[in-house]
Write a structure and sequence with these properties.
The structure is a single chain. The chain is α/β, with parallel strands linked by helices and 239 residues long. The chain has a single domain (2-238), classed as NAD(P)-binding Rossmann-like Domain (Rossmann fold, 3-Layer(aba) Sandwich). 39% of the residues lie in helices and 20% in strands. It contains 9 helices and 11 strands. The chain has helices spanning 11-22, 48-52, 68-78, 99-113, 125-135, 153-163, 182-193, 207-213, 229-238, and strands at residues 2-6, 26-31, 38-39, 57-60, 84-90, 117-121, 140-144, 147-148, 171-174, 180-181, 198-202. The strands form 3 sheets. It has a 7-stranded parallel beta sheet with strand order 3-2-1-4-5-6-9, with helices on both faces. A two-stranded parallel sheet has the order 7-11. Strand 5, helix 4 (99-113) and strand 6 (117-121) form a beta-alpha-beta unit. Helix 5 packs across helix 7 (182-193) and helix 7 (182-193) runs parallel beside helix 9. The chain is globular, with a radius of gyration of 18 Å. Bound molecules: NADP nicotinamide-adenine-dinucleotide phosphate.
């Protein structure tokens, strides 16, 4: 089986490519600029016919955060009908009305209409790390009043490798091993980085934060990721 991975240079893609190769699968990555990958641009369509040549499955993990629907439409136009598609989405894109999630949901509709599969994941550790760093940059740290279920890109990559072999459409949620309050995760980040901050709760009104407070982005019944936040912090900060 030959696989094309879009987003191969991203956080997830950098874990997914070696995981596919370790399973003995023939996988090539797509990138607009990075050496060692097949050159292609999902927005312009440049390079897609060559990148898709001989491919059985596309794992679509590319995103630019703003034009994902246009990119998916371009990709789907370039694919042959018999080529399978596995899309990486986010838990709760249908429950939390973030503009980015609306785009992801629209792409999910395109993928489903084509008979493709979808793996929705909760927030990656790297995203939560960036959030914790940004919210504690000032002497007084801010703590959003919702829970998070961080998952490692390695765990998500492993599940994608498993799903690469499935033929029928699969729609699946996947989350990290623990649902924790943002305050708890930020406090662990501060301990691991040896810093102290006064932490002030950040409670914002509106439907987006309401959706997050009610846990629309969580998948407690699918806590199949294994790497904990503390293990991630230890590995990241020792590297
Ligand atoms: N971050 C999270 O917490 C999280 C959680 C659940 C699901 N997800 C989903 O997981 C997927 C991967 O996320 P990530 O955080 O790994 O992404 P990322 O690090 O932001 O990487 C984005 C990737 O998209 C590629 N890309 C962007 N625009 C492109 C274009 N026009 N043509 C071709 N490639 C393009 C980039 O490749 P080049 O720059 O090399 O071209 C890059 O490899 C996304 O679909 C995201 O929504 C993310």
């Amino acid at each position: 089986m030959t696989i094309l991975v879009t987003g191969a240079t991203g956080h997830l893609g950098r874990a997914l490519m070696p995981a596919l190769h370790a399973r003995g699968l023939d996988a090539r990555g797509l990138s607009r600029t990075a050496p060692g990958h097949v050159r292609g641009n999902l927005l312009t369509g440049e390079g897609l016919p060559a990148a898709l040549s001989g491919v059985d499955l596309v794992i679509h993990a590319a995103t630019d955060g703003r034009r994902d629907v246009a990119a998916a439409e371009q990709l789907l136009r370039a694919m042959d009908p018999e080529q399978r598609l596995l899309y990486v989405s986010i838990v709760g894109v249908d429950r939390v009305p973030l503009p980015y999630y609306r785009q992801k949901l629209a792409v999910e509709h395109l993928v489903r209409a084509r008979g493709g599969s979808i793996l929705r994941a909760t927030q990656f550790h790297d995203l939560v790390f960036g959030m914790a760093r940004a919210l504690t940059a000032a002497p007084v740290g801010l703590c959003p009043s919702f829970d998070i279920q961080p998952v490692s890109v390695g765990d998500v990559a492993a599940r994608l490798v498993d799903l690469a072999g499935s033929t029928g459409p699969v729609y699946e949620d996947m989350g990290g091993p623990e649902v924790r309050s943002a305050r708890d995760l930020i406090a662990a980040y501060l301990r691991a980085t040896g810093r102290r901050r006064l932490l002030v709760p950040l409670r914002l009104p509106g439907r987006i934060f309401g959706g997050l407070r009610s846990g629309g982005h969580l998948a407690p019944g699918h806590a199949t990721g294994t790497l904990t936040w503390e293990s991630y912090l230890e590995a990241r900060l020792s590297g």
